[in-house]
C-alpha cells in the first residue's frame, strides 16, 4: 500500500510564519511594565538608527550629503531628534503592532525618498538603504516589545477575535485591493505631474537638479505604477485589513449611546454623529486621517528640514499630493466595505 501523502495547507502566508516566530517572546512581554517597554522602544530605536547610519555612512554620504541641509544650530539637530522620538511615541500610543508600524512608516517616509530618487538623482541603492534603516530601526523594537494584533496573526488568533478571515486570507482579494490602491496613487501623482507640480518644484525646490520624471508623460506610467505597488500593499494592510478584520461582540455592537441631561455637549455631538458609525467604519476613517496627517507632517519635517533650499510651502504641497491620494484610497476601501457589507 502506497504511503499516504501529507496534505499541505495553501492558506498559510509568510506573514503568519513571521508572527509565529514571535510566539515564544509574547509571554515574556507581560512581565515588562508598559512604561518600561515604551522607554525601551524609544531608546532602542534611536540607538539602532544611530548605529546603522554610522556603519553605512560610507555608502550613502556621497549621495545624500550633496543634497542634505547642513544643520549648524543645536536646536535644528534637537528638533529632528525630537520629531523622531515623537514619531516612535505616536505609533506606540496609538497601539500599533510591528506590522502596522512597518506600513505606517513606509508610507509616511515614501514621499521623501521618492523625491530624492526621482528628482535629486540620488542612487536608488543609497535611498533604499537609508529608507530601510529609517523604517527598520523602529519596526525591530516593536517586533520584540509588542505582540502582534489578531489581524496580523490569523493562525494564532482565538475564534471570534477576527472577522472576515476568509476575505483576509483570500489571495485574489489581496491582489485586487492592492492594485486598486496602487492605481489611485498612480493617478493622483500622474495628474499632479501633468498639471501644477512641475512649476511648484521649480519655484519652491531651488536646488532641484532634474524634473524630467514629471514630464515623462504616458511613457512614465508603467514605471510609476510598478514603483508604487509596495505602497498599495502597505496602505491595504494598514487600512483595509485592520478595519475589515475588526471583530466586536454582539452586546457591544448592539449597544447604542444614550443622552443624559448631564452629558457634555461634545460627547452628545459625538454620539449623534461619529458614534452612529459602525466600529469598522470608525477604524477605517480614523486610520485614514491619521495616515494622511502623518504623511503630510512627516514630509514637511523631513523635506524642509533636511534637504537644501526647499521651502516649507513646497514641502507642504509635495506632501499634500500623497495625503490626498491616501484619503482617496481610504474612501475606496470604505466604499468596498459598504458595498460588500463587510
Characterization of this structure:
This protein has one domain (31-340). Mean pLDDT is 84; it is low at 1-12, 17-27 and 250-263. It has 342 residues and is an all-alpha fold. 69% of the residues lie in helices and 0% in strands. It starts with 13 loop residues before the first helix and ends with a helix. The relative contact order is 0.12. The chain has 16 helices and no strands.
Short descriptors:
membrane, 342 residues, mainly alpha, disordered N terminus, transmembrane helix, globular
Secondary structure tally: strands: 0
- Compute the separation of the termini in Å: 47 Å
- Residue-averaged pLDDT, rounded? 84
Over all CA atoms, what is the radius of gyration? 22 Å
Query: What share of residues is helical?
Result: 55-70%
Largest sheet: none
Overall geometric form: globular
Helical run tally? 16
Keywords: Membrane, Transmembrane, Transmembrane helix
Transmembrane segments: 38-62, 101-122, 128-145, 175-196, 216-235, 288-305, 317-336
